[in-house]
Amino acid sequence: MKERKLQRTMKPIDVWALALGAIIGWGCFVLPGNAFLPKAGPLGMLIGMLIGAGLILVIAFCYGYLIRNFPASGGEFIYTKTFFGKGNAFICGWAMVLAYWSLIPLNATAMGLISRNLFPILQFGEMYQVAGWTVYAGELLTAIFFIILVAVINIWGMKKAAWTQTAVALTLVGAVLILAALTLAKGPDFSNLAPGFPAGVNKWEAIFAIVAMAPWAFIGFDCVPQAAEEYNFKPKYGTFILVIAVLVGALLYILVNTVTAVWMPWEDLLAAKHSWPTGYVVSAYLGKFGLWVLGIAMFCAVFSGMNAFYMATSRLLYAMAKEHALPSWFGHLNKRGTPNYALVFIMVLSLLAPWFGREVLGWIVDMTSVGAAIVFAYTTAASAVLAYKKHNPFRVTVGVLGCIFSLFFIVLLVVPGMPGFLAKPSWISLAAWVAMGAGFFLVIRKKYYGKETH
Q: Where do the H-state alpha helices sit in 186-276?
């Protein structure tokens, strides 16, 4: 019987949509009032986001170089195994599984945030509280519905999933641009953006508080190599696709943050302590139509994020199974060339998460920035080693710079006193995940090292 393989159905725009949909999620619409403005102010956020995007672009160039030379699913896991061995590859893969998977249920629960403002009828059946977050039956059912829906779309095949992703990502960009155009047409007072930084906060500390969020803000561009085995175009175009996705992502973050801050003095907006500042100002100044445009943009961001991370996580599990780092069950493909068992596993795991409340999920996602930065460090180092072997000094320099930037992100997150230092619950979550990984590695170690790939 002929071995089933992943199908080459993804066009360049599909891959761009995969990256952008993963980059832009609920955070683009929730964090302006909850993190960006409180930490950095309008100007600090702008500068910090541009610096963060610039650092990520250097890392993206390293990814593009590796995609060109290793056009196979598994991406970072395969790169790390090739250049640094199976032990490091497992660490890299374990960090990626957490970073990718956790964003599926978090995006699903963001549907509840949308419904609270657009469909309050779904906020029924108060069940219990976890860490101050009230879990409602209506919002829980909404999250469960979308987790199952996106899983089914992916099981149907990459062609349908990619088409859906492209349509939703383009709608997302269009909705944010319409929101920005409506804002300009209303003639906002740009003096509301002053002061550029929060009072009493060092400007550079404010800027680097945003830079520290870059691995989280832009996690998703690295989904691109996970689908490399399914491109229907030359892998050399991967770099260009990555660059455009990161630049458009940075633009969307900045536009939504500016729309949030420009309608009234932003310090007064924060002092009012609205549950969703972006939703409040759009509703107050652009009316119901503006709120619906914002709702559509947020829905598209959340849906495309879930879809992208389903695609990426399932391909990662598939690749790890092929390398014997996971049971062969994860490497099974259905008749459409889709790793359906891996997708079902992700779906079941995701269905458990919303029951714990959004606050607990937030702790998990906060520490995924560390996992993302570790993965970036492995990948950029692999790029530098490959370039050295190929006698390409420019690529060596880019790889070394990318690795330095990745380590810089880690320092911002794990060194006490740094702007991005993780909160205690995130450290506990990180320790639990590391312990799980260590236990799992001990179980599969003999088989993992005892077999070579075929």
A: 203-211, 214-217, 238-262, 266-271
Would the pLDDT of 451 be above 60? no
Is residue 142 pLDDT above 50, yes or no?
Answer: yes
Distance CA 254, CA 363 (A): 24
How do residues 366-407 score in pLDDT, each as one tens digit?
677 788 889 999 999 999 999 999 999 999 999 999 999 999
How far is CA 404 from each of CA 49, 58, 344, 410, rounded to the nearest angstrom? Answer: 18, 10, 37, 10
* Helices and strands in the chain, H and E counts: 15, 2
What distance in Å separates the CA atoms of residue 304 and residue 169, rounded to the nearest whole number?
6
What is the value of pTM for the model shown?
Answer: 0.86
* Separation of first and last alpha carbons in the chain: 17
The secondary structure of the chain in percent helix, strand, coil, rounded to multiples of 5, reads 80, 0, 20
The two tokens of residue 318 are 């598939």
Q: Among 243, 225, 226, which residue's Cα sits nearest to residue 68? A: 225
Helices (H), ranges, 263-326: 266-271, 277-322
Of the candidate CATH numbers 2.60.40.420, 3.90.226.10, 1.20.1740.10, 2.40.50.140, the domain formed by 12-72+103-356 belongs to 1.20.1740.10
Q: What residues are paired with 451 via a beta bridge?
A: none
Contact status, residue 300 vs residue 171, Cβ threshold 8 Å? yes
Cis-peptide, bond into residue 120, ω within 30° of zero: no
Are 199 and 267 in contact, with CB atoms under 8 Å apart? yes
Kind of pairing between the strands at 126-130 and 133-136? antiparallel
Q: Which of 331, 352, 349 is nearest to 340 (CA)?
A: 331
